[in-house]
Amino acid sequence: MENINKKLTLVGAGPGDPELITLKGARALEKADVVLYDALVDKRLLSYTQPGALRINVGKRRNNHSYSQTEINKMIVYFAKKGRHVVRLKGGDPFVFGRGTEESDYAQAHGIQVETVPGITSAIAVPGAVGIPMTRRGVNHGFAVITATGSNGRLSEDLLQLVKTNIPVVVLMGIHKIEEITALYTSHGKHGLPIAVISKGTTKEEQVVAATVETLLQTVNKDNIESPGIIVIGETVKSGLHYRQWLTDRQQNLEYHEN
Questions:
Q1: Is 42 among the residues known to form the active site?
Q2: pLDDT at residue 11 above 90?
Q3: Where are the alpha helices (DSSP H) in the chain?
Q4: Are residues 113 and 134 in the same domain?
């Protein structure tokens, strides 16, 4: 007789800090028989699981995939059909460039019940944690969130359109494209537009660089900023303490050379 207790729960782990997982997400981990977790998930979250739970790192980093997406999908179905409660623990929110939809669709197509526990997305939480609001009254009425790279490996087509607007943009998974991104904005005459790069946001290894499009690349290279990270482009970056400090440092440097 077929086991009817087949279940997948997609859980968003949040932007990095393990305390930013939701209470519902932590409770799902406590009930899991199998946890398939991403590379960017803080391993301390696995302490919520019961002692007998199977925990498998299926993380995919740029140019380093421990498992393909097809293999992950098949693992979900394999364990769920054995009557195991599978928790797919994903960084940020499962449905913000997390391929949660693909996994959910695949599981449901194989008769598996799916529940989703949303997570705090890094697109909003990481800038907010360093004092950069994504909306500010009198400055903007919205913002865009995009991935840096399209399916063809080239710079996102969406960014090619957004650069023509004044909409603040959050670019996820984009540190390796910083040179192309700043060149694009420079080619549209936006040399002085505020921009920030936040690496490993909300963690102890967090690094923040804020500048203008014209000067960012030099600063990023000097500070050796690494992935994973996000890029925030737009006037709301001015609200962040790191940008204001950059302005102060730059002014002092100019005054020094003038004297």
A1: no
A2: yes
A3: 23-30, 69-80, 100-109, 122-129, 157-162, 178-187, 216-223, 241-258
A4: no
